[in-house]
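INFO  loader      accepted 1 record
INFO  loader      residues=270
INFO  predictor   begin
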Amino acid sequence: MELLKLLQEDIPLVEEPFSWIGEKLSISEEEVINRIKELKEKKIIRQLSPIYDTKRAGYDSSLVAFKVKPENLEKIAKLVSECPGVSHNYEREEVPPVPKEPEPVPLSEKEKLVIRATQEDLPLVERPFKVVGESIDLAFGEVIKILRKLKEKGVLRRFSAILYHRRAGFKANGMSVWRVDNGVEEIGKLFASFKAVSHCYERTTNGVWSYNLFAMVHGRNREEVLEFCAFLSKESGVSDYKVLFSKKEFKKRRAKLFDEEFYRWIENLV
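INFO  predictor   done
INFO  writer      dumping tokens
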């Protein structure tokens, strides 16, 4: 579907974004909104919202691994998921280390306010940024201006549809890990250019883990993911890789930046 493809690319930061999308698809603004509502009802689109670079926003993140006895897995997973700062929680086949961190950029209080307000689902109305602005006592023009500035700074990656990948037909996902001896940045950009790759990172290595490039690959089934990784290997010339499949999903949501709930959770620990 062309609409779904367009929504995943980058929703424009303009006064009437759904009208802009309608013009691209030669349909009315009303039809765009109705089709998005239908995709949400079918649980194909999770929400429309910005994808922020948490590192650029000043946050540290880490991929934390636990070695847990099978009989304690559900209990420990529930405890971990209760933390508002945890965005993803999976049982996986193997454990990798953490990523390299880009430098954060300074943010004003207004920028933080807009980031906090826009992490919820974008309202399906003619002027959605006007609704966002009213919720934080800012003119919608200022909201758009701040979002554009955040994009220039690299804090806002893109504004797009977040999908329920399984409902959209992608029932398997594998974290592919690659040992790239030379040209990791170029190969990372190559992998990231494919639609089947949702996340791509350069990560640190240590004495027991030599895989320095990670790419999350989505497919309709396990075989499709493996075939695509074999294709990536052929295209890149990197032959040393593994594919780590998720065994069970306990939690999946984007971390909310400048979230009051997280600060309250931390206070309750001390």
